[in-house]
Amino acid sequence: MGELRSFLFPVFASAIDEGRVGIPAPRGARNVKPRIVIRLFDRLSVRGGDQELLQRSSKNARELLCYLIVGRRSSVPRESLAALIAGKHSVKKSKKALRQALWHLRRGLVIHGVKCVDRVLTFGDGWVQFTPDGNVRVDILEFEQAVDRSIGTEDGRSVDTKGLRDALEVYRGGLLQGWYQEWCLEERERLRQLYLRALDALIADCEFNHEVSAGVAYAGQALHADPARECTHRALMRLYCLAGDRASAIHQYERCKEALREELDVEPDGETRALEREIRAGKHPVAPAVRPPVPKWGSPRRNKF
């Protein structure tokens, strides 16, 4: 019996490793669903537990999933999805392309042999919608929710700086870098503006609290994303003045002029020129007595604080 046991154990273990024999799950563990993590910042990544999913799925399938995530607030008619991935092809070819893309999604969203497409998508009569369950994480959703929570009030004066720093950790780069579909470009810009608004809030908080080094670092991140962001150049000028570094403040004004000419072919606006004159005259700006509001959406020239 001992010899038989020693022979069977390695065979049984090998079968387990190859997936031909399963081990019963511990009591209470069968209903635990592996976490699905979907990342759209920078490059697309879909992980289920320890597996990378959709690696062999078609480009149309991956685009379909991302489009549904971006349009998650409402269901999308199948006709619209077919037109999205098939372009100007005939209706018949478009419907076929959609069926193939959905087939690839169903086949690709499988974790250790268990289908999980129903954990992320709902299929209705003529429509599809992204409806993640509670164990599905999506980076762009977490980022947007974190920023919204952290800039809590309508006037933008109540700011949770830790929440904003956490949000910045999620933003790993532009949405789906290398994708140039119109819907993707629009969402990429919207999220970029939200990222800049989070940085604006942190910069304003640093200025209010005389935290010059941190404020300069956040401003550097903002200018890396948008070199012609005039409100950020002004904030840097004020921060340098708070540190008593008048020369750096004036130099920042010159950098602002160069960036505006190169990016937008315009000159600094009146507010920026007035700030530069004050600094040259030795009238160094002081930190605001009241926390300034976070700028609303808008172009670099319209954002004010």
TrEMBL record:
User: What taxonomic classification does the UniProt entry list for its organism?
Assistant: Bacteria, Candidatus Eiseniibacteriota
Q: Which GO terms describe its molecular function?
A: DNA binding
What Pfam families has UniProt attached to this entry? BTAD
Q: What is this protein called?
A: Bacterial transcriptional activator domain-containing protein
Give the coiled coil ranges. none
PANTHER family on file: TRANSCRIPTIONAL REGULATOR REDD-RELATED (PTHR35807)
Biased region (Basic and acidic residues) positions are 270-281
- Mention one GO biological process in which this protein takes part, according to its record: regulation of DNA-templated transcription
Record domain Bacterial transcriptional activator: where: 138-280
Disordered, as annotated region: 267-305
InterPro entries linked: AfsR-DnrI-RedD_regulator (IPR051677), BTAD (IPR005158), Sig_transdc_resp-reg_C-effctor (IPR016032), TPR-like_helical_dom_sf (IPR011990), WH-like_DNA-bd_sf (IPR036388)
Q: Which residues cross the membrane?
A: none
